[in-house]
Automatic annotation (TrEMBL):
It comes from gut metagenome. This is Membrane or secreted protein. Keywords: Membrane, Transmembrane, Transmembrane helix. The keyword Transmembrane applies. The chain crosses the membrane at residues 12-34.
Amino acid sequence: MKKKWYRSEIVKGMAILLSYILLIVAVFGGVIMMRMGRAGINLESAEKFSESYK
Protein backbone atom coordinates (compact mmCIF):
# COMPACT_ATOMS: atom_id res chain seq x y z
CA MET A 1 0.00 0.00 0.00
CA LYS A 2 2.75 2.40 0.96
CA LYS A 3 4.77 1.54 -2.15
CA LYS A 4 1.83 2.39 -4.43
CA TRP A 5 1.33 5.74 -2.67
CA TYR A 6 5.05 6.49 -2.99
CA ARG A 7 4.96 5.75 -6.72
CA SER A 8 1.94 8.02 -7.24
CA GLU A 9 3.77 10.79 -5.34
CA ILE A 10 6.78 10.41 -7.67
CA VAL A 11 4.48 10.56 -10.71
CA LYS A 12 2.79 13.67 -9.30
CA GLY A 13 6.16 15.29 -8.63
CA MET A 14 7.38 14.45 -12.13
CA ALA A 15 4.19 15.87 -13.65
CA ILE A 16 4.65 19.12 -11.68
CA LEU A 17 8.31 19.29 -12.72
CA LEU A 18 7.41 18.65 -16.36
CA SER A 19 4.74 21.36 -16.29
CA TYR A 20 7.26 23.82 -14.82
CA ILE A 21 9.82 22.92 -17.52
CA LEU A 22 7.17 23.35 -20.24
CA LEU A 23 6.19 26.72 -18.75
CA ILE A 24 9.84 27.89 -18.71
CA VAL A 25 10.36 26.65 -22.29
CA ALA A 26 7.17 28.42 -23.41
CA VAL A 27 8.26 31.69 -21.75
CA PHE A 28 11.76 31.50 -23.27
CA GLY A 29 10.31 30.56 -26.66
CA GLY A 30 7.91 33.49 -26.52
CA VAL A 31 10.70 35.91 -25.61
CA ILE A 32 12.92 34.59 -28.41
CA MET A 33 10.06 34.77 -30.94
CA MET A 34 9.25 38.34 -29.84
CA ARG A 35 12.90 39.37 -30.14
CA MET A 36 13.24 37.72 -33.56
CA GLY A 37 9.99 39.32 -34.74
CA ARG A 38 11.14 42.75 -33.55
CA ALA A 39 14.74 42.27 -34.68
CA GLY A 40 14.10 40.48 -37.98
CA ILE A 41 16.11 43.14 -39.80
CA ASN A 42 18.89 42.85 -37.21
CA LEU A 43 19.00 39.08 -37.77
CA GLU A 44 19.44 39.55 -41.53
CA SER A 45 22.17 42.17 -41.04
CA ALA A 46 23.86 39.87 -38.49
CA GLU A 47 23.90 37.07 -41.10
CA LYS A 48 25.42 39.43 -43.67
CA PHE A 49 27.95 40.59 -41.10
CA SER A 50 28.96 37.01 -40.25
CA GLU A 51 29.39 36.28 -43.97
CA SER A 52 31.57 39.37 -44.46
CA TYR A 53 33.49 38.48 -41.27
CA LYS A 54 34.51 35.13 -42.79
